[in-house]
Amino acid sequence: MKLSIKTLFLFWFLVLLSPDPLYSAKGHYYPGDWISYSVFRFITCIAKDFEHIYFGTTGGVTRYHIYQKSWEPPFTTSDGLLDNRIRKIAYDPSIDELWFDTPSGVSVYTPVFEEWYFGGDFPDSLVKNKNDKNPKPPFPQLLMEFGYAFYPEGYITDLKLNRYQVTDYLLDDWDNLWIGTWGLNAGVADLRYSELEMFEYGLYQKDVKAIILDGDHIWFGGKRLYPFENGITRFDRKEKSWDYFEEQKTSGLESAQINVIEADSDYVWFGTDFGLARYDKEKNLFRFYDTFNGLRDDRITSLRSDGQILWIGTGSGLNFFWLKKDSIGTIEDPLVKNVHINTIDVEKNYLWVGTDWGVFRMNKNNGEWFRFSTPDGMLNSQINHILKKEDMLWFTTSYGILGYDTQTGEREIIRGGFDFPGNDPKKLATDDRNIWVATYYGVWKMDRNTKVWRLYTTEDGLLDDDVQDLVLDKDYIWFGTPEGATRFFWNNPKRID
Question: Rounded to two decimals, what is the model's pTM?
Fold first, then answer.
């Protein structure tokens, strides 16, 4: 009996000293509150524990569940990594710990408690060795899908003769050869059948300037930072699958330098630096439009569809795409002609346009334009974003934020530096309880009842403080940054911010 009491006491003593299994490294947040995606195609190392294969990449750590045959959310700085650039991974089976070596230091993860620690000496002795059990180059001859060829010397080529080097490999207990490549993500080969399957996971390009929810799909677009990053990413939330539309490999996609994305029932539209790309959902085809097709300027800065017309803002004025006629027209009114259009929104009777010189409104019934302003002077400035939400129109300006009730004319004024504690509001999103504002220095959230502001930065879970786009998704909100996309479970009922 004494032994049992001592054992029980020791157990509870260890539990009290152990980290709380509910919380992650990011303060009071729960694991999964912040999930980030970046470019995971460039793999540096591979490791495994009892259930997972881990791929260290230049954008974080991806995790594949061996038995469920599915991807689990990646590890990034949003979770507890000190740096997303992974150099080595080690697993200690004796205490069930994962070690990650990065240029910024060592991070340690305990799967049982879902907790992160920092520091210590990386255990090089635990890094898997490529011993005699593992095949060494030359590898076995492996078959791949059409368009790719595997070479036993340790690289893959595609139809354009791009070469993807095998950077690491691991043979598991079931004769599955897991490989990592530089630029083509990860793959697995069943050596009994000599077939290599490559995975698509994460973003094609890191910079995310635009996000749009389109049914079961989420589209991500931005500007390439490197020559190999030049494509659009589509994530199927239902199937948990990723698709890439690469500029060089996709017919009809003349440019993937994305500024803005819009979607309607039949098409997804991409405003680029070189024209307008249209994706036909039914036919799975792209078509491209530029100044030769009637655009005022090839640089597309804003898009908004009202179901019948796609309104197109450019660096030199306003166009419209008549969907039924499949033709592009031009707005010639002097108020918006040759003007840089920053943002567009529509309602039943009016079209709203934000520019560097204020707000202009068009009556859709008669085509008349006039300058729209309010007595507070908030709209006599650069307009970065216009958002129509029920009866409210929201404007982010260089002076702050203005809410305008289209039914009553009442205004909600949030002046920068006074009512709004941040600077340079770019875009906003609203729900019944909050206003979310994207800035260069993080995301501000205001409780509309208490008027209390809360700032979210990389200290909370963002990949980068420069937030370029934000989209509400019920209890979640997506953020686009130069380092990738982050989903935040803002309405987690277990957590009080």
Answer: 0.92
